[in-house]
Amino acid sequence: xxxxSRDWPALLLRHEMLLLYVLIAEWLFFYFAGxxxxxxxxxxxxxxxDRQFDILRHSCEIGLLALALTPVILTSGIDLSVGSILGFCxxxxxxxxxxxxxxLPLASACTLAIGVAAGGLxxxxxxxxxxxxxIVTLGTYSLFRGLAEAITRGAITYTDFxxxxxxxxxxxxxxxxxxxxxxxxxxxxxxxxxxxxTFGRSFRVIGYSPEGxxxxxxxxxxxxxxxxxxxxxxxxLAAIIYTARLGQAKADAGLGYELFAITAVVLGGTxxxxxxxxxHGTLLGxxxxxxxxxxxxxxxxxxxxxxAEELAGLLTGALLLLALAAGVLPRILPVRRIxxxxxxxxxxxxxxx
Amino acid sequence: xxxxSRELSVAGAFALLLAVLAVFAPxxxxxxxxxxxxxxxxxxxxxxxxxxxxxxxxxxxxxVGSQFSVCGVCAGLLAAMHWPxxxxxxxxxxxxxxxxxxxxxxxAGLGLPSIVVTLxxxxxxxxxLNLVRQGKFVDLPENFQWFGLPQATGQWLLVGGALVCVxxxxxxxxxxxxxxxxxxxxxxxxxARLAGLRPRLGTFGALxxxxxxTGLAAVMNVVQSPQVQPxxxxxxxxxxxxxxxxGGVAISGGRGNLWGVLAGVLLxxxxxxxxxHLRVEAHWERAIQGAIVILAILADGAHRRWGxx
Lengths: 353, 309
What we know:
- The complex is a heterodimer of chains A (353) and B (309).
- Chain A has helices spanning 8-12, 15-34, 49-74, 82-99, 104-128, 133-152, 163-170, 178-196, 198-208, 210-215, 220-246, 257-267, 279-298, 300-305, 308-332, 342-345, and strands at 35-37, 43-45, 172-173, 176-177.
- Chain A has 353 residues and is mainly α.
- Chain A has one domain: ABC transporter involved in vitamin B12 uptake, BtuC, CATH 1.10.3470.10.
- In chain A, strand 1 and strand 2 form a beta hairpin.
- The longest helix of chain A has 27 residues, at 220-246.
- Chain B has 309 residues and is mostly helical.
- Chain B has one domain.
- In chain B, 74% of the residues lie in helices and 1% in strands.
- Chain B has 12 helices and 2 strands; from the N terminus they run αααααβααααβααα.
- Chain B has helices spanning 5-24, 31-56, 64-80, 85-109, 114-133, 151-175, 177-187, 189-194, 199-222, 236-246, 258-277, 285-307, and strands at 138-139, 227-228.
- A two-stranded antiparallel ribbon of chain B has the order 1-2.
- In chain B, helix 2 crosses helix 10 (236-246).
């Protein structure tokens, strides 16, 4: 969806560019408000390189989920179960490795397969039976989180992973956190899929008009199935990275991540009704949320209140509402028309001169 | 008979569960624990009725859990300030209606998708409550629990109140013009508009109604214990949506009734004590609830696809 000509003012005012300005402003704000010098003259807080790497590390898992959700939302679907699949897969990884004695690479591969299978359940219900994605994934949201709780009996935590595995989540490789490379690879893959293949373009066509897509001869059910399978697989990958970063797997892994992922996608300019949106917008949305979450924890005021988590959640929710409202407000203003009677909706008959 | 086949099948499943319990765990049938169970689930039933209303009008609200917590904590704070119940109850119901109205303005007014709006609302309200209260419990005054009545009377009062609520709403949905209006906008909003109804006003009304019922349920929950838990409502949204879906309310709107919802609430509420009595570990509860929801929509989907001849 490139602009027809190199129309610079229009290009500078597109949604992704606006989000980029917000992101830069946000980063600068936290850089100046959240960086302090401690008594020994060492810079601490937001402005340190370590903190920036931390932001990158924390954004990888939510970023992966958001990348997986972008095609889903482009087809005007939704997947609320990605956070639960993440938790389920993290538990499964621990189970395969510690209780079944599989080597970690093999256990990771099996975890990916489990994730795809979990996505497959969504895909079968949504694409084959044409059930509404919302309620299907609400059901699997309970199911997978419940399975994770059942396997661990609410108590077991898998820990003591070997250092070679923890490298993936805690160390740097070629100057950047190791998981950032995986994230970048997946991001490029999804970007190419959505923006550079006819295959990926069909997602938008389906989101815009599923009936039209069907009449145009697209295999709508198969494409939809693929989108949910992909979401399951990527959630499993996020589970592996999550486990490697924290060095432990518990039943509550990734609880509530779906909200942050959906917020990132919507903030990134993808319409929740499907049909329009970009992957790079999603990436910017992820960055905006990650900077907000980490930046708030660095502000002295928030540190004193010890309420970074709550404030970040509150602001993310409010941000999502704002982003949604900003998308439709221009279309429906003036507000006076909101509750008008249907009779008023028809234009008055032209008065004879 | 055919018309209520869906509700009857849920009732049948519930009867089957009761029969299994009668054979394998007769210890389940003791009056006092059963009354306690019914009292605990009375608020859920009230919220589930509101949720059915919203789902029949083809919307959904997953912020009810947070609304429930907010209303509960506010009611508790008012009670601690020695407000009488006659003033406290309308205040909580009004607060719930107000929260519902915010959702309603965003969904019906701006035409935003209800799932995302209420998802954002759920987190905003929950984290806002955490931020303000820092997870503190609210201590209630001495004679507030069970309305100051003996416990058994209070319990019967709550269960009776919830049942009256269901009866009244069911009758209203069936016989009042406003009730038929909800079905009309749920099955086809455009047709309803062309017939001279106002779909957006109806959607708004359903969401406000759900909020008010949630406020009522929050008070019903608060009077049951000497303290108010700030996390009382977490997970409630899934419970009531699951109950409504299991009870035959279609997520695509326009179908379902409150008898099915009543059966769904009973079925899901019995699972947890049934697990304990059948010596299955309680950690399976959430997985089983999820599986039941999926089975219910699977049955609906199969029925829609292959059942119609």
